[in-house]
Amino acid sequence: MRWREARRSDNVEDRRGMSVRRGVRVGGMGGLGILLIAVIAMLMGVDPRALFQGGPTLDSPSVSVPPTQGRGGPVSGSDELRDFVAVVLADTEDVWHAVFRGGGQTYPPPTLVLFSEAVESACGMAESATGPFYCPLDAKVYLDLSFFEELQTRFGAPGDFAQAYVIAHEVGHHVQNVLGITQKVHDLRSQLSRAEANQVSVRVELQADCLAGVWANLAQRTRLVLDRADIEEGLRATSALGDDRIQRRAQGFVVPESFTHGSAAQRVHWFRQGLARGDPEACDTFQNDQP
């Protein structure tokens, strides 16, 4: 990606090196909630405690302390990877501002929170193992930069555009939240069986993949930031994060009815759809019998 000379977003909150008290328990989860957390630990996407459980309740408060130099790396905010994240976030801001303006609406950009090891969000406590997530209750994307190393070593998806896709996917969840889709999904899930609720979750995630593709299309159309190798990196990351690929790697077999983010083929299809069309209207994953 050609990004070094581009604008940096001011909407990055750097909490790396901050300590957060462990032992906070999220109430009201139940067996399904625990299962979802275990799955999300291997995936990326919306924090399910907020999107699918109506928001968390905390049995005890967490306490954060002033920044220190910890295992998460420097907290100065001057490192190159932080700059890269700020550039990608700025680019999503520019693209979605233009899209919303074209529809006569205003786009309120999210804040992206960088953290190390653990973080307190409006959706509750999360650790690095949760992976990147978006919390609709505070409209913030949460990211431990160590996930990018995991993306390369564990998932076999290296490259800066693979990393940009991760950010764009989470911003896609913010777009869903702004458009009211998140609330509609929450209301719908409360009426469904577990299997049906998982299917809805898949459609939410595939739509975020498609919106990430829309961003890539429009960013390329206006600023020529990508080349062919970048697109391949994005497709490789999308495929590597498919439920079937992750389940097969983790347990040796696949359980399709437990999918929450979609198969590798589904995720690639919808990312390609957004990438080819560059139009959010092409991302209606809820109108297809098989997304």
Structural notes for this entry:
Helix content is 48%, strand content 9%. It has 291 residues and is α/β, with parallel strands linked by helices. It has one domain. A four-stranded mixed β-sheet has the order 1-4-8-7, covered by helices on one side.
Structure summary, number of beta strands: 8
- Give, in order, the helices and strands: EEHHEHEEEEEHHHHHHH
Shape: globular
Approximately what portion of the residues adopt beta-strand conformation? 5-15%
- Overall mean pLDDT stands at 80
Count of runs of 4 or more consecutive helical residues: 10
Helix content: 40-55%
Report the structural category: alpha/beta
What's the story with the biggest beta sheet?
Answer: 4 strands, mixed
Radius of gyration: 18 Å
Distance between the termini: 30 Å
Total discrete domains: 1
Low-confidence stretches: 23-44, 47-78
Q: In what order do the strands lie side by side in the largest sheet?
A: 1-4-8-7
Notable traits:
291 residues; alpha/beta; 4-stranded mixed beta sheet; two-stranded antiparallel ribbon; 9% strand; globular
Please outline what is shown here.
The protein is of the alpha/beta class and 291 residues long. It is 48% helix and 9% strand.
Task: Please outline the helices and strands.
Elements: E1 12-14, E2 26-27, H1 30-40, H2 48-51, E3 57-58, H3 80-102, E4 111-114, E5 118-121, E6 124-127, E7 133-135, E8 140-143, H4 146-153, H5 160-178, H6 181-189, H7 194-223, H8 228-240, H9 243-251, H10 264-277
Parallel strand pairs: 1-4, 4-8
Antiparallel strand pairs: 2-3, 5-6, 7-8
Helix pairs in contact: 3-5, 5-7, 5-8, 6-7, 7-10, 8-10
